[in-house]
């Protein structure tokens, strides 16, 4: 009897259409030989069921007895996917690197300081293993080197592929990368290489298949958290960043003022330190402020004094304890020494002159499987209380100098020396920060029931980097999101309004002043195209003393006879069925003809509006999505005021709208820039003053 197929296994579930398509693609990928497909990218928007499909996939692989390994970039991310799939999961570092031995290297021959790296493990996994890597958007492929201990080559993605030896045809190993490429890319990169099919093909010559889930599953469709991510995701897909309005009118999304932060935070965590509540802020300095504020409540007067029951966050991988302690792991302080141990480290040449502060602590960690471990270690307080993300280069070097000075009897790079270095409590002191508030990069790959998000950053709000940042931050919340300083940018927010140079002085004129009919606050639209052409032509010729002495009406052509200084010429206006003037040309070649052509040339390619056009149902066509979105935004804004849009003309970086309300008409130019952001508006001089003011006030 042949093994059950993946699509058959998923028949017991009610899948969305896109999930069904994904399962079919995954089935083909799993069944195909390594030589035809070896990488699958399972991408998806937040709430589309990536984790659900992953859980079903692992259950299927267990049923058909095919080996798989579940891994993620951080310990917290590994715990999340392990909990949701009910399978063991590990960090990528623990999966592919050997921490039994350290190897030394020098960056150059003149470097007197040795550095060390953990090499790749020997891969003893079965030949048909499938590696399922969650939160793959976080996997970097640029050089990463801590001050002394490096993992592999320093290129995580490259090392992962080398460990699996993925491009070898002697086995049937495969990788499934799972993630959301709208999230923050790895630090130092502007895209997520492990989720980029083109990059994987070109850089590693891999055979890549992919699928992206876009349909939010029904049971999550009412989530305000997810509803706020949809327009952000759409903007990222379209590369258009001209509006961002976080809607807090949901049961699971709420705005809070800064003065209400602490009380709301304490209410959510029931006045105790819990693991379900987190604060996310942009900078390390802002994170420190929140940590200090929360700790002042729980541990009054101990802002610079770590305390039993403090929640802490590991900020650097450490493989030198009984369990692998991963960057991003949270722990609880169980014991702490009464006062810090102070070390003054000074080299003979004075280049290193640092004071380091250590504490002896016991920290409770839970491993990937949830098993508790009480780890006795030293911590470096210089980092703990600072607003920096890590120790300085000189502080790191001081740790090494201190080790060398304390061990003069050990010969460099011998086995004894390396063993002593791995076990040295000062050199391997844990690098931790307080864990009540964290940056978005540290939060990535994790989720909490309650997230407090300070949305303020030093980035431009209407930029790709900010959209990725806030999308990642919002999706860290599984139940309740509280926002501070959330953005409310409509398409009109950045738009500066300019009055027409003619409009401003006319404001004091009487509406029925017959000498200013063309600029009056009431304009009557012509009913016929012939009248419209005459009106536009006269308006332009009135700038001079050129007179219209005769008109001839032909089908789709108007011919005018003009007179000036005893000179006569004839001008032809060709127009089409859409009331657009396509050509303006003179029949004669005299001086008047040349002057008239110059004055009237602006009418070419202009569509004229008639009284009955507003009664027609308009179906405007837009060359780009953001222009149509802008139109819809204007339409929604004016819909309750009986204002109609009767014409839109498209120019380079300019949309010209003609609005009508009763007998009043306003023509407004809306300018946009190369970033697809509308920047200013300006009514034309022949617009109704009152209607223009009303429209611009509504869009303000």
Automatic annotation (TrEMBL):
Tell me where in this chain the UvrD-like helicase C-terminal domain is found.
435-482
User: Which residue numbers delimit the TATA-binding-like protein domain?
Assistant: 532-595, 624-698
Entry keyword Hydrolase: yes
Question: What Pfam family is a match for this entry?
Answer: AAA_19
Question: Which of UniProt's keywords are assigned here?
Answer: ATP-binding, Helicase, Hydrolase, Nucleotide-binding
Q: Which InterPro entries match?
A: P-loop_NTPase (IPR027417), PIF1_helicase (IPR051055), TBP-TOTE (IPR054572), UvrD-like_helicase_C (IPR027785)
The family database entries (SUPFAM superfamilies) matched by this protein are listed as: P-loop containing nucleoside triphosphate hydrolases
Single GO term (MF): helicase activity
What name does UniProt use for this protein? RecD-like DNA helicase (AAA domain)
């Amino acid at each position: 009897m042949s093994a059950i197929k993946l699509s058959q296994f998923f028949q017991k579930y009610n899948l969305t259409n896109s999930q069904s398509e994904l399962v079919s693609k995954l089935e083909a990928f799993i069944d195909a030989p390594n030589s035809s497909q070896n990488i699958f990218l399972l991408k998806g928007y937040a709430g589309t069921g990536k984790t659900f499909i992953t859980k079903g996939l692992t259950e299927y692989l267990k049923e058909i007895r095919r080996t798989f390994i579940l891994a993620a970039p951080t310990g917290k991310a590994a715990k999340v996917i392990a909990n949701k799939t009910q399978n063991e999961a590990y960090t990528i570092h623990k999966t592919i690197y050997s921490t039994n031995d350290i190897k030394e290297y020098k960056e150059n021959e003149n470097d007197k300081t040795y550095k060390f790296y953990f090499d790749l493990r020997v891969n003893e996994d079965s030949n048909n293993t499938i590696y399922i890597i969650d939160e793959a958007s976080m996997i970097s492929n640029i050089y990463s080197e801590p001050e002394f201990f490096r993992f592999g080559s320093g290129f995580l993605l490259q090392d992962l592929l080398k460990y699996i030896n993925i491009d070898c045809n002697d086995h049937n190993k495969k990788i499934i990368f799972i993630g959301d490429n709208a999230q923050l890319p790895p630090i130092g990169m502007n895209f997520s290489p492990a989720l980029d099919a083109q990059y994987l093909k070109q850089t590693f010559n891999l055979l890549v298949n992919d699928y992206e889930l876009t349909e939010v599953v029904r049971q999550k469709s009412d989530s305000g958290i997810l509803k706020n991510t949809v327009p952000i995701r759409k903007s990222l897909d379209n590369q258009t960043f001209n509006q961002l309005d976080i809607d807090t009118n949901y049961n699971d999304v709420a705005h809070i003022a800064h003065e209400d932060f602490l009380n709301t935070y304490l209410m959510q965590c029931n006045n105790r330190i819990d693991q379900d509540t987190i604060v996310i802020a942009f900078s390390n300095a802002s994170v420190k402020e929140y940590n200090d504020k929360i700790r002042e409540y729980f541990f009054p007067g101990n802002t610079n004094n770590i305390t039993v029951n403090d929640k802490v966050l590991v900020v650097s991988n450490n493989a030198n304890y009984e369990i692998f302690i991963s960057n991003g792991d949270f722990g609880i302080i169980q014991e702490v020494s009464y006062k810090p141990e102070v070390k003054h480290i000074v080299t003979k040449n004075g280049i290193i002159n640092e004071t380091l502060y250590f504490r002896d602590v016991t920290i409770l960690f839970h491993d990937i499987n949830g098993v508790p471990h009480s780890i006795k270690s030293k911590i470096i307080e210089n980092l703990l209380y600072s607003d920096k993300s890590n120790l300085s280069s000189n502080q790191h070097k001081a740790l090494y100098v201190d080790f060398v000075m304390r061990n003069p009897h050990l010969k460099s790079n011998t086995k004894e020396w390396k063993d002593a270095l791995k076990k040295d409590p000062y050199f391997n002191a844990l690098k931790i920060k307080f864990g009540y508030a964290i940056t978005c990069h540290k939060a990535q790959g994790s989720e909490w029931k309650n997230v407090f998000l300070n949305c303020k950053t030093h980035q431009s709000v209407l930029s790709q980097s900010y959209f990725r940042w806030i999308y990642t931050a919002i999706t860290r919340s599984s139940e309740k999101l509280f926002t501070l300083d959330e953005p409310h940018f409509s398409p009109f927010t950045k738009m500066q309004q300019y009055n027409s140079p003619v409009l401003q002085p006319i404001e004091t004129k009487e509406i029925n002043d017959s000498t200013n009919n063309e600029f009056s606050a009431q304009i009557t639209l012509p009913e016929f195209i012939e009248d419209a052409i005459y009106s536009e032509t006269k308006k332009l010729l009135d700038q001079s003393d050129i007179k219209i002495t005769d008109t001839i009406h032909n089908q789709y052509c108007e011919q005018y006879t003009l007179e000036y200084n005893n000179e006569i010429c004839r001008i032809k206006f060709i127009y089409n069925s859409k009331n657009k003037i396509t050509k303006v040309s003179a029949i004669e070649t005299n001086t008047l003809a040349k002057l008239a052509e110059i004055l009237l040339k602006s009418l070419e390619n202009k569509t004229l509006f008639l009284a009955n056009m507003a009664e027609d149902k308009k179906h405007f066509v837009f060359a780009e999505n953001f222009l149509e979105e802008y139109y819809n935004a204007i339409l929604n804004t004016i819909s309750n005021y009986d204002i109609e849009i009767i014409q839109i003309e498209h120019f380079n970086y300019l949309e010209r709208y003609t609005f009508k309300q009763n007998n009043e008409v306003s023509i407004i130019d809306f300018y946009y820039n190369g970033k697809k952001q509308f920047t200013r508006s300006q009514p034309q001089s022949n617009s109704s003053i009152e209607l223009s003011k009303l429209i611009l006030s509504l869009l303000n």
